[in-house]
Amino acid sequence: IFKISNMKLILHNMLTSAMIKGVKKGYPLLLRATKVELQPVEFDAGFVVHMLPRLDWSGVTAAVQCLNQLDLLQDPLPELPPTVPDDYANNEDFLRKAHIALMQLDVIEGCLVCPETGREFPIAKGIPNMLINDNEAA
Amino acid sequence: APVQPLVRNRKQLESLLQQVPTFANPQSRWEQYATPGEVAASWLYDAKMRWNCFTAEQSVLDLGCGPGALMTGCLALGSGYVCGVDIDSDSLDLCRSNLMELFSPGNDDDDNDVSANWDLLQADVTRLSAGLVHQRQFDVVVTNPPFGTYSDAKLSHKSNSNRRNKKAGQSTSSKGIDIAFLEAGIAASCGLVFSLHKTATMPFVMHRARQACARKLMSSDDVASAMVEGRDYSVSQVANLRYNLNRSYNHHLKESKDIEVSILEVAFLR
């Protein structure tokens, strides 16, 4: 039995709708998930420490908030601090929580929504579709 | 017995990548051709030896991932996270099933449970930079882009089938698309970019790579300054290979043909 493997919040963290004409920032995309699953991904502190400086933490907290509100999981995702702690590189408790959010939660079905225009980007089988029409392009 | 996803040497990598199922019906409108297993293996293994990249803490982006030979290689070499981007739904379906076959957390069939972290994204690579929140998010970008040999004129000559197949928002122009992929890769990388191009086009491609790097600013604490080749980045031609394009395209050559390709390496040194 194969477990599904996507879409991770690390990818959600990077995506915007700013390629659409008129959108100023398009971030973070609202996460309107309909099917999610928590996966047993092995914790890797080194990966999180290395990636964290390149991520937008506000996007992570927004995504976790969205998901906890949707109440799709048996247990809500661990609560994340509003900012990354200064000692994050040595703070295993924080790194584990960040890892769960970024790498262990799969958004399998649903959509991403532009916060400025409401334009929806579907997620099917864990793959988000960010294609736009030519007449939408900036 | 199932193939071992993790590899210890070049031969194992080649063996693994040669088994990645590929396109049944390559779509000429996207100039789809999968990277042959032995090309992908050689390419990635050499990169790993040169830079010790594809490590567990690193993230990798594959632009135009197709059925996923390069992604498979990057994961098999130990990359922490690999994201593949493609415009075509059928490619992504195939890639997803290939990756799930080999890398799946909690795959009970296998004694050696190898999990790997990957995502797929359906997007137009030529519009990708505008759609990502930051530049420089990936340690390594790999890409085997469409060669961009077909101009608008040639594609519209295919008229009826193309109009039927063309979905709204998908650009028909392939001119310069390999450069567009390269530029998207240079923007997305904070470390390395590897791309594959026809050898004959390499002088031009390298020129465009240098231009793109020079435009990419070094940002330090208070000053953003232009990057300097040699100090801040390097652009090199690191391999020359022979590549066989099969005769699947109905408007392509009647026979199978070898073309010469080269690998471009861009490295951000600081």
Automatic annotation (TrEMBL), chain A:
This is Multifunctional methyltransferase subunit TRM112-like protein. Belongs to the TRM112 family. One of its GO terms (molecular function) is protein heterodimerization activity. It holds the Pfam family Trm112p. PANTHER family: MULTIFUNCTIONAL METHYLTRANSFERASE SUBUNIT TRM112-LIKE PROTEIN, UPF0315 PROTEIN-RELATED. GO terms for biological process: rRNA (guanine-N7)-methylation; tRNA methylation.
Automatic annotation (TrEMBL), chain B:
GO terms for biological process: methylation. Residues 60-152 form the Methyltransferase domain. GO terms for molecular function: methyltransferase activity; nucleic acid binding. Residues 152-171 are annotated as: Disordered. Residues 156-167 have a biased composition (Basic residues). PANTHER family: RRNA N6-ADENOSINE-METHYLTRANSFERASE METTL5. This is Methyltransferase domain-containing protein. It comes from Macrostomum lignano.
